UniProtKB/TrEMBL annotation:
Lineage of the organism: Eukaryota, Viridiplantae, Streptophyta, Embryophyta, Tracheophyta
NCBIfam families documented for this protein: tesB
Family per similarity comment: Belongs to the C/M/P thioester hydrolase family.
Keyword tags: Hydrolase
Pfam families per record: 4HBT_3, Acyl_CoA_thio
Name of this chain's protein: Acyl-coenzyme A thioesterase 8 isoform X1
CDD domains: Thioesterase_II_repeat1, Thioesterase_II_repeat2
């Protein structure tokens, strides 16, 4: 080293020291912070592009609803959670990673309008940091999230929760295959099959494989529980913060609906929206690798359904615990509850 010449950058200079870093190690200086892509590249997975935010000012970010993002007639609740968590994460020291969040859905979001995320730096401690995020459209706060972040720390370790025994995702049908099968399944009512066939099919950014083969429809009763594997389509950047945002996004896709399962009946039209959502991230994971989502609804009462969930890696590690309460009503016709009023 002493006699050879190497290209290097001066990275610190004082009267007494001059710190040089060989060119091949300059990547060590790159921020490890939340995926820092300033542009949305086509090569990124759709999930990563949906969660992309533009910085506007310090603590203020802007997100949009991409044309190919799932919408359900409004801004999808998971998009609010994922984007708000991304905004919060971008303001936190990159060594701290989200361990819990609590959110409220206040107003139906308009997917034709950008969403402004205003981050409030509630506290920055040595080990923990807390952020509050407001999602704003047309001057109204439509969604709010509190999230807490922690520096990696060793400690006690136990896991009582056991991953249920379910088939491997490779043995199960994809949503696309399931849809094809349902259209031609003679055990299902013709009206239901026609409805599935005529409904426009928009692929989700998340691949889903239901663990139980069932022939129930949105018009037939079933137990208030569900288990499915999910993973982001495509490869995600290697940033644990992003993987947690993608899990947060996905967690609202099929969650509250489980609460409606025992109440489904012919002709039922429901008006249901997520009201609040809480998550605890226990261990690191990748959201572009299969994750098992185990959902139960212990209660529905007073027009509110309650659901709780656990997420496991393929190795049976409990990675996330979560809960949600949602509004569960019979829809008054015409179904108008889900229109934005901003
Ligand atoms: C289980 C097997 C599954 C297999 C699945 C396979 C495939 C799945 C396929 C699809 C899955 C889709 C998954 C979609 C999940 C989507 C989840 C979400 O994204 S929800 C979006 C996030 N949440 C929100 O946006 C909620 C925002 N918050 C609010 O809107 C409000 O806070 C509120 C909760 C409505 C409460 O506001 P308020 O106090 O003002 O409430 P009101 O009771 O006064 O009502 C407001 C408004 O609604 C009208 N309304 C009320 N009740 C009804 C009803 N029963 N029917 C129709 N309309 C109703 C009411 O008239 C009010 O309107 P107005 O002000 O004009 O009078």
């Amino acid at each position: 080293m002493a006699s050879s010449t190497q290209p290097a950058d001066v990275i610190a200079l004082s009267k007494l020291t001059c710190l040089l870093l060989p060119k091949e190690h300059t990547n060590l200086l790159e921020s490890k912070s939340i995926w820092s892509a300033d542009e949305t590249h086509e090569k990124f997975s759709l999930a990563e592009r949906i969660l992309h935010l533009d910085p506007v000012e310090v603590n203020i970010f802007q997100g949009i609803t991409l044309p190919d993002a799932p919408k359900f007639g409004k801004v999808f609740g998971g998009q609010f959670i994922g984007q708000a968590l991304a905004a919060a994460s971008k303001t936190v020291d990159c060594l701290k990673i989200v361990h819990s969040l609590h959110a409220y859905f206040l107003l139906i979001g308009d997917f034709n309008m950008p969403i402004t995320y205003q981050v409030h730096r509630v506290r920055d401690g040595k080990s923990f940091a807390t952020r509050r995020v407001e999602a704003i459209q047309n001057g109204n706060v439509v969604f709010t999230l509190l999230a807490s972040f922690q520096k990696e720390e060793g400690g006690f370790n136990h896991q009582v929760a056991e991953m249920p025994s379910v088939p491997n995702p490779e043995e199960l049908l994809s949503m696309e295959e399931l849809r094809e099968r349902r259209i031609i399944d003679p055990r299902l009512p013709r009206t239901y099959r026609n409805k599935v066939a005529s409904r426009e099919y928009v692929p989700w950014p998340i691949e889903i494989r239901f663990c139980e083969h069932n022939t129930s429809t949105n018009q037939t009763k079933s137990p208030p529980s569900l288990r499915y594997w999910f993973r982001a389509k495509g490869k995600l950047s290697d940033d644990q913060a992003l993987h947690r945002c993608v899990a947060a996004y996905t967690s609202d896709l099929i969650f509250l609906q489980v609460s409606l399962n025992p109440h489904r009946e012919k002709g039922l039209k429901s008006a249901s929206v997520s009201l609040d959502h809480s998550m605890w991230f226990h261990r690191p994971f990748r959201a572009d690798d299969w994750v098992l989502y185990v959902i139960n609804s212990p209660s529905a009462h007073g027009a509110r359904g309650f659901v709780s969930g656990q997420m496991f890696t393929r190795n049976g590690e409990l990675i996330v615990s979560l809960t949600q309460e949602g509004l569960l009503r019979r829809a008054r016709s015409p179904v108008s509850a889900a229109k934005p009023k901003l």
